[in-house]
Every structure is written in C-alpha cells, then in structure tokens.
C-alpha cells in the first residue's frame, strides 16, 4: 500500500475512508513542509520580540487580555491541553479517531497554524503506527471547535492520557514507548494549533456521509425488491413524470428503480391490477430523491471542510499578520449534519411503512406475516415491531442540535454550534436506518419466495441472490435476529450495491 501525501488542499472523503478504515499511510508533501516551516519561523520571531498576539503570548478565551511572557510559553501550552481535556463518555471508535488525526494534520499542513514540523510529524507517526488516543465522545460545543476531545488526543502526544495500541488500551506514554515514538513538549502556539478546529465533527461527518452515499443506493435497491414483491406499478417511475418536476435526486432515484427492476415479470402497469399504488411505493423517487439531494449537500459541505484552516489565530507570514477570526465555529457542519440526520431518517421511515405493506395481509395478497402456517408461526410479525422501534428512536434523534447554543468562557464565546453533537446524532440515526433497511430486505426476499414463476429484474435478481447466499427463506419460525444481523452487515458493507452494480454498472 502506498502513501497518501497531504498538503491541506486536496484531501477527499474517499481519502479519509482509506486512512480511517483501511490503514493507508500518510505523509506531508514537500510543499506542506515548506509552508509549515515558514509559518513556524514567523511565530518564533513574534515570541522573540514579545509581541502581544492571541494564543501565542496571551491566555485563551476570556483570558485573552492576559499577557504571557516568553519564558512561560511552554507551560502555557501544556496547561492548555491538560485543562481542556474534559471530554467524557464512551471512546470514539478507532476509525473516527484516525479520521480526526488525519484531518488535524491536513489542516496544519496548510501553513496557517505556526506549529513545528516535528510536532505534526509526531501526530502522523502515531497515525501510521496505530497509536490511537482514547477520545471520549462527549464534551465539544463545536466552537471554539472541538477543544475538549482534541485535547484528549494531544495528551497522548505528551505522554499522558490513554491510547489503544494493537488492540490494547494502555497509558499514553506506554503506547508511545511501544510504538517507538518520541513524545513532544509543546511550545508557543502549538497546543492551540492542535485543539482549536473542527476535525472531530468533520471526521464523523466524512465517514457518515460516505456511508450515506452507500445507503441511498441500497435503499433504492431494497425498495425495488419490495416494489416487485408487491407487484408495484412502474408507470410512476416514468422519466417524463420526473422531468416534469425537475428535482435532480428524484430523477436519479426513478431511473435507478427502472434499471434495477428491468425485465421483471412481477411489476405491473397502471390499470392492470390497480390504478395506482400507495405512496410508499409510488413516491419512492420523491422521498428517496429528496434524501439523496440532502446527502449530496452534506457531502459538498464536508468536502470543503476537509481542506479548511479552522484554528485561531491564523498566521499569514507573507503579510506579516496574525488574524484572530472564527473559523473554528462549526456552524456549516452543524446545519449540514442536522440536515443529513433528518434526510437519512426518512429512508427508514418509508422503509418501515413498506415492511408493514409486506407483512399485513390487509394490504397485499401474500400469506399473513409472510408465513405459510400463521398462528402456529408468527413469521415476520415482530420484525416490523423492531423496525418501528428504531424509526421512533430516530424521530427523537433527528431533533436538530444546531438550534441550541449555550454561552461559554464567561460569555466571550457566546454562540456555539453544537456541530459535533449533530454529527454524532447523524451517525446514530444512520445505524438505525441501516438496520431498518436490512429488515425490509429480509421481508422483501421472503415475500418474493412466495411468488411462483417469478422472474426478477436485472438488479433485484442479483440482490436476491446475494441475500440467499447468507439467509435462506423462513419455512418455520426461527431465531430471527441472527438473520437480521447478517443482513445489517450486508447493508453496511455495501454488498447490495456491489452485487447490483456488477450487473448494471454504477448507479448514481
């Protein structure tokens, strides 16, 4: 495996996934090295002449008017880290921590932060050797960035805190020693450069967006299976209908469904069996399409943030300027992540209603609860309960975090974004959505097994075959969660998308 060369300008969501999940190694570009060195030289000159500059020769937040002598700069930076390491709760997943480390290093590579090159290299060495700091998930207000969780990350760089190394949780100093990485002693501006920014919410956001792009395609595939299982009407997906409205996501979804179901003898035309279907079938393009557009919006916001300078102050050495601003404020991500959470929750909302149409004999011509001997067998009755439970939970989780703000630092920081909370919620919502879609796939495949002489569409056939590799039809009641868990893993891994795209080519 090669190296990813970062320069603060060209990082992509796919790069984040490759580093976070696949262990891709990371190094600085030569241009980034030059920019970091130049910025650091300028900071050293400011300290030497005892200029009054926020975060370099002053305290932080409400203490910004307190001057710090150059003799105390190292103590100032260490105190910043230990005092700000106030996160609590369960540790963030290791893949998220890897994403956080990558994004912080990439922001520093832009050359606006005034950090020493060796400090950035220590962070990258930890990433490449698998020293993953324990970062508790709760404690960020999303402005001044992700201060508390990032401070927990930096503790390990100092030989403090805790880390996971080779699957084992241990003191930070021990992890650094075992990985043969030297700890650092921070000096002027470095602590602030490391913890003032948005990499936690951005890392969670990048991974969630990536998985959401998989889930919107997966939702189209699984909905297409249900459409066939219920002999749905394909006229509602006619290109002319969707061009007449013009919404991009809607047109993509309709096109996907027609491609996936092409060749099926289960789908019907309007007037053959009924004039029109219920909304959960007929309006798949409108519902999935709106979520698709929202996911694309979140993707675009995250793509920008991956290459953003988000600490404060920013060093513009060529202009002999240090400017205090607010790029650490997570509002762009907070709104995008709230929107993403709402958008993907709708995919589960409509999926659960399709599950109900599959299991309820009053709504279809299939055996009640998809079992041949109902009464003796409960069949798929409780799978719908489980889906309904997760959909209801998502309704609670989808409440936007960004509408709240609690002032901090004695009202110096009097509006905060709650962007990290928004990102964490979106992640939780997505997990529920994946599980609900897994249940729909389970029920749809069971319903299809009752359709004698069925010829499935080009795409649905591949999805159905993929399911049957792992989950046979349910003849008599069995332990259902085992199959549901298998399907959840298939949804998460992108197995449905991969199988269908092998036959149809790439779906949008």
TrEMBL record:
Pathway: Amino-acid degradation; L-histidine degradation into L-glutamate; N-formimidoyl-L-glutamate from L-histidine: step 1/3
InterPro entries cross-referenced by the UniProt entry: Aromatic_Lyase (IPR001106), Fumarase/histidase_N (IPR024083), HutH (IPR005921), L-Aspartase-like (IPR008948), Phe/His_NH3-lyase_AS (IPR022313)
Magnesium in keyword set: no
One Pfam match: Lyase_aromatic
Cellular compartment(s): Cytoplasm
Modified residues (2,3-didehydroalanine (Ser)): 144
Keywords per UniProt: Cytoplasm, Histidine metabolism, Lyase
Keyword Cytoplasm in record: yes
Family, per entry: Belongs to the PAL/histidase family.
Full protein name: Histidine ammonia-lyase
Organism: Lutispora saccharofermentans
């Amino acid at each position: 495996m090669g190296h990813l060369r970062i320069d603060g300008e060209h990082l992509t969501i796919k790069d984040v996934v490759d580093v976070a999940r696949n262990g891709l190694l990371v190094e600085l570009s030569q241009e980034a090295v030059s920019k970091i060195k130049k910025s650091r030289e300028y900071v050293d000159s400011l300290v030497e002449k005892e200029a009054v500059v926020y975060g370099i020769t002053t305290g932080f937040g409400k203490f910004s008017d307190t001057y710090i002598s150059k003799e105390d700069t190292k103590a100032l930076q260490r105190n910043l880290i230990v005092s700000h390491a106030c996160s609590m709760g369960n540790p963030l997943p290791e893949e998220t921590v890897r994403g956080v480390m990558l994004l912080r290093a990439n922001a520093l590579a832009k050359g606006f932060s005034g950090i020493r090159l060796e400090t950035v290299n220590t962070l990258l060495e930890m990433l490449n050797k698998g020293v993953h700091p324990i970062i508790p998930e709760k404690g960020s207000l999303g402005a001044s960035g992700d201060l508390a969780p990032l401070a927990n990350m930096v503790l390990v760089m100092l030989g403090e805190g805790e880390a996971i190394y080779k699957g084992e949780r241990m003191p930070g100093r021990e992890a650094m020693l075992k990985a043969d990485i030297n700890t650092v002693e921070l000096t002027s501006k470095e602590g602030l450069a490391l913890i003032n920014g948005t990499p936690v919410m951005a890392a969670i956001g990048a991974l969630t967006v990536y998985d959401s792009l998989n889930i919107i395609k997966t939702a189209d595939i699984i909905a297409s299976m249900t459409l066939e299982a219920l002999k749905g009407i394909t006229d509602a997906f006619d290109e002319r209908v969707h061009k007449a409205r013009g919404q991009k996501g809607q047109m993509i979804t309709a096109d996907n469904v027609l491609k996936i179901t092409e060749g099926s003898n289960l789908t019907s035309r309007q007037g053959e069996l009924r004039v029109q279907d219920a909304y959960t079938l007929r309006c798949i393009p409108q519902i999935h399409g709106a979520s698709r557009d929202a996911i694309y919006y979140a993707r675009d916001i995250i793509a920008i943030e991956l290459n953003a300078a988000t600490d404060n102050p920013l060093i513009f050495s060529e202009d002999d300027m240090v400017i205090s601003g607010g790029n650490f404020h997570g509002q762009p991500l907070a709104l995008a992540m709230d929107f993403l959470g709402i958008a993907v929750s709708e995919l589960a909302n409509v999926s659960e209603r399709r599950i109900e149409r599959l299991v309820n004999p009053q709504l279809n011509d299939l055996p009640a609860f998809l079992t041949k001997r109902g009464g003796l067998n409960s069949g798929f009755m409780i799978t719908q309960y489980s889906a309904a439970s997760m959909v209801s939970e998502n309704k609670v989780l989808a409440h936007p975090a960004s509408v709240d703000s609690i002032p901090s630092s004695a009202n110096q920081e009097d509006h905060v974004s709650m962007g990290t909370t928004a990102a964490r919620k979106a992640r939780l919502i997505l997990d529920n959505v994946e599980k609900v879609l897994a249940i729909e796939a389970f029920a749809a495949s069971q319903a299809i097994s009752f359709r004698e002489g069925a010829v499935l569409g080009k795409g649905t056939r591949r999805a159905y075959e993929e399911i049957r590799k792992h989950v046979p039809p349910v003849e008599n009641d069995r332990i259902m969660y085992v199959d549901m868990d298998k399907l959840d893993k298939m949804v998460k891994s992108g197995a449905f998308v991969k199988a269908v795209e092998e036959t149809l080519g790439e779906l949008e």
